[in-house]
Amino acid sequence: MKIDVIGDIHGCIDELHALFEKLGYQKENNIFVHREGRIPAFVGDLTDRGPDSLAVIRLVYQMVVEHKRAKYVPGNHCNKLYRFFLGNKVQQKHGLETTVQEYETLSTREQKIISKQFRTLYEQAPLYLEIPEVSAVIAHAGIREDYIGRTDKKVQTFVLYGDITGESHSDGRPIRRDWAKHYHGDRWIVYGHTPVMEPRIKNKTINIDTGCVFGNKLTAFQLPEEKIVAVPSEQPLVEEKFSYFDND
């Protein structure tokens, strides 16, 4: 098995199409297929903030659920949108409001279809993916080595939100511990969630959320080749959204 793990898309459908093309995928029956049988794996946060979140949902649903030609794990934005589609009371901020605005322009029939598609995609998804064929684990915000194999509440919080401390920066972003520094496993942990200007490799972990929706680029990590492929973002650059880590 050969896989292409794709970072946080956040509604940037044009960049996703461009990345697929750069990776050698071709469009067939409204989905992207690789002639050598490579499998895309989406690391979560498909929607919010970007220009066309619903188009991303439709494409990923078709590839993962209908055609079974891709894999997907949910992110924290996916979790919040899922709760919105269930009818739960969620705060429409941090990007959810953009997806809801798109949704509210649809007819009632179209709303029912997209809601059902996303709920099905989310409900069928594992919390994180273990892919022994390429010795990798794909988890939206990462996963500690001793959490692999567990799906309890503590692990769910970590996988969706990262190693949060419960405290916040002055701009409201949660303060997170740098868990990757302490990872010593022999499997790749491929994750996103925290925007970085360049993919961050620490031990055998790689953060591929290169902030496409904030104007940088959309990145894929190819396994088993351990190759990084990226396309530039078409969105305006918002530099303050990016995190910087030391490299010790």
Automatic annotation (TrEMBL):
<comment type="function">
    <text>Asymmetrically hydrolyzes Ap4p to yield AMP and ATP.</text>
</comment>
<keyword id="KW-0342">GTP-binding</keyword>
<dbReference type="InterPro" id="IPR023937">
    <property type="entry name" value="Bis(5'-nucleosyl)-tetraP_PrpE"/>
</dbReference>
<comment type="similarity">
    <text>Belongs to the PrpE family.</text>
</comment>
<keyword id="KW-0378">Hydrolase</keyword>
<protein>
    <recommendedName>
        <fullName>Bis(5'-nucleosyl)-tetraphosphatase PrpE [asymmetrical]</fullName>
        <ecNumber>3.6.1.17</ecNumber>
    </recommendedName>
</protein>
<dbReference type="Pfam" id="PF00149">
    <property type="entry name" value="Metallophos"/>
</dbReference>
<dbReference type="InterPro" id="IPR041780">
    <property type="entry name" value="MPP_PrpE-like"/>
</dbReference>
<dbReference type="InterPro" id="IPR050126">
    <property type="entry name" value="Ap4A_hydrolase"/>
</dbReference>
<feature type="domain" description="Calcineurin-like phosphoesterase">
    <location>
        <begin position="1"/>
        <end position="196"/>
    </location>
</feature>
<dbReference type="GO" id="GO:0004081">
    <property type="term" value="F:bis(5'-nucleosyl)-tetraphosphatase (asymmetrical) activity"/>
</dbReference>
<keyword id="KW-0547">Nucleotide-binding</keyword>
<dbReference type="InterPro" id="IPR004843">
    <property type="entry name" value="Calcineurin-like_PHP"/>
</dbReference>
<keyword id="KW-0533">Nickel</keyword>
<dbReference type="InterPro" id="IPR029052">
    <property type="entry name" value="Metallo-depent_PP-like"/>
</dbReference>
<dbReference type="InterPro" id="IPR006186">
    <property type="entry name" value="Ser/Thr-sp_prot-phosphatase"/>
</dbReference>
